[in-house]
Design brief:
The protein is mainly α. It has five helices and two strands. The chain has helices at residues 4-15, 21-29, 49-55, 59-71, 94-101; strands at 80-82, 105-107. α2 (21-29) packs across α4. The chain is globular. The model has no long low-confidence stretch (mean pLDDT 91).
Length: 112
């Protein structure tokens, strides 16, 4: 179970624009990236247009940028595309989450 204080901070980051937390979260994640192959690219999950409009930012992209700064890994904002909107995952069980996301994303064709 996640620490309630951490859960509250994640909620503030995700839904209330507390971008400054991205550096702290990335700092906790960066050690997990040590020894990663040099060809790794961080790929943030694209947010649905409706949710992006509501929040004003994509928290996955903000976090990926912070993690990229701390690890030196590139961030591939254009590597993944959303094919369809999905229901919110907050109250779904693991199997329901997998079904909800099935077919929702696709790799973008390479530009080069």
């Amino acid at each position: 179970m996640m620490d309630p204080a951490i859960r509250r901070l994640l909620h503030q980051f995700k839904y209330h624009g507390w971008h400054r937390l991205a550096e702290r979260f990335a700092g906790a994640m960066a050690p997990l990236m040590e020894g990663a192959p040099p060809h790794i690219t961080l790929v943030p999950i694209p947010l649905a247009a409706k949710r992006l409009h509501q929040r004003g930012y994509n928290q996955a992209a903000v976090l990926a940028e912070a993690l990229g700064r701390q690890t030196g890994l590139p961030v591939g904002h254009d590597r993944l595309m959303r094919r369809r909107e999905t229901a919110t995952q907050t109250r779904l069980a693991a199997a329901e989450r997998r079904a909800n996301l099935a077919g929702a994303f696709a790799a973008r064709p390479s530009a080069g």
